[in-house]
Amino acid sequence: MLPLIRILIENIFKPPITEDISSVNLPKHPKGFHGHPEHDPTRCIACGICQYFCPAKVIKISQIDDKINYHMDLDQCTCCGQCIDYCPTNAIKHRPNPYFVTTNLDDFKVDHQINLIKCAKCGAFIPDMTLIANKLFGEGKPIPKHLSLCPKCKRKP
Amino acid sequence: MIFKIGRSKSPWIFHLNTGSCNGCDIEIVALFASRYDVERLGCKLVGSPKHADICLVTGPVTARSKEPLLKIYDMLPNPKVIVCVGACSISSGVFTDGYSIVGPAHKLIPVTAYVGGCSAHPKNIFLGLKKAIEVFKEGR
Ligand code: SF4
Ligand code: SF4
After folding, report:
1. CB contact under 8 A, A101 and B114
2. What is the three-class DSSP state of B125?
3. How much distance in Å is there from the Cα of B88 to the middle of ligand 2?
4. Tag placement on chain A: N or C end, fewer CB within 10 Å?
5. CB B113 within 8 A of CB B83
6. Ligand 2 center to residue A21 CA distance, Å?
């Protein structure tokens, strides 16, 4: 009986056997890990390819006056990377810190505004094709005239 | 007071599958396996919701699993802390508007933390657990 009481009293003053949760560091994410996508509105040309390929219908692109509203519901995203693979201007990348962990659902919503330029002939709003032109014809080369026209003006002779 | 300290130092975890594809469930088990090993931190996977402090919910809540979810929510001791793991349990994910889906979970029960990803990475599930433990420390 006596040794038992001794052990019990000792245990009260011993530090816990477990490690502290708030100070522990778990192993890092592996390299090239598929995390949530991160959209860069300055590179995006609002082509809609990512919206077409997304299997979870995360991405919604709509036009509001002279701007494109690029909306992502990342709470539905399956982190498949299709949007990243198919984006022609590399506007989407995997996040450096892969996933969201929050207490607020609104953190998953991403809303970006993409600026539009005016058609050279009629003044309708069209996306800026400079990045695509640079990719096709090389950096610093002049941008062909048909890329600065809206679809209607392109068809006219 | 003692409960509060005990819970914030060694939370016991109950894992509830409400119709998920098993991906997130495997990641939760990986959290308790040797590489991430949270049992050394005092977290323990328990078999009964009555023993649990934190409930990890995975899956988009199918019509069949709605009743068990509500029953288990009633069984959890106060404060009831729910952590949604994976895209499905946050927003029904790719199953949104499916004929058998009545979820997501936050429509049916109050949820404390959300862990995104499909499937969620063990490290991020751990970060979600940390957020849940803060709730115990604050003493909701
Ligand atoms: S595919 Fe790339 S450039 Fe096209 S709309 Fe999506 S993000 Fe923008
Ligand atoms: S990673 Fe996949 S699911 Fe997520 S936005 Fe891109 S295409 Fe959609």
Report:
1. yes
2. helix
3. 14
4. C
5. yes
6. 33
**Amino acid at position A124, single letter:** A
> Contact at 8 Å (CB) between A36 and A76?
no
**What domains are defined for chain B?**
1-138 (3.40.50.12280)
* Whole-Å CA distances, A37 to A57, B102, B122: 14, 27, 19
Nearest alpha carbon, ligand 1 atom 5: A46
Confidence class for position A116, pLDDT limits 50, 70, 90? confident
pLDDT digits (tens, 9 = 90+) for A58-114: 899 888 878 888 998 888 888 888 899 998 888 898 887 767 888 888 888 888 888
pLDDT of residue B139 exceeding 70, the answer is no
Residue B140 has pLDDT above 70, yes or no: no
* Residues B24-36, mean pLDDT to the nearest whole number: 89
How remote is the C-alpha of B102 from its chain's centroid? 18
| Cross-chain Cβ contact A102/B96 below 8 Å | no
Structural domains of chain A ordered from first start: 33-155 (3.30.70.20)
Q: Does the CB atom of residue A126 touch ligand 1 within 6 A?
A: no
Mean pLDDT of A124-140: 79
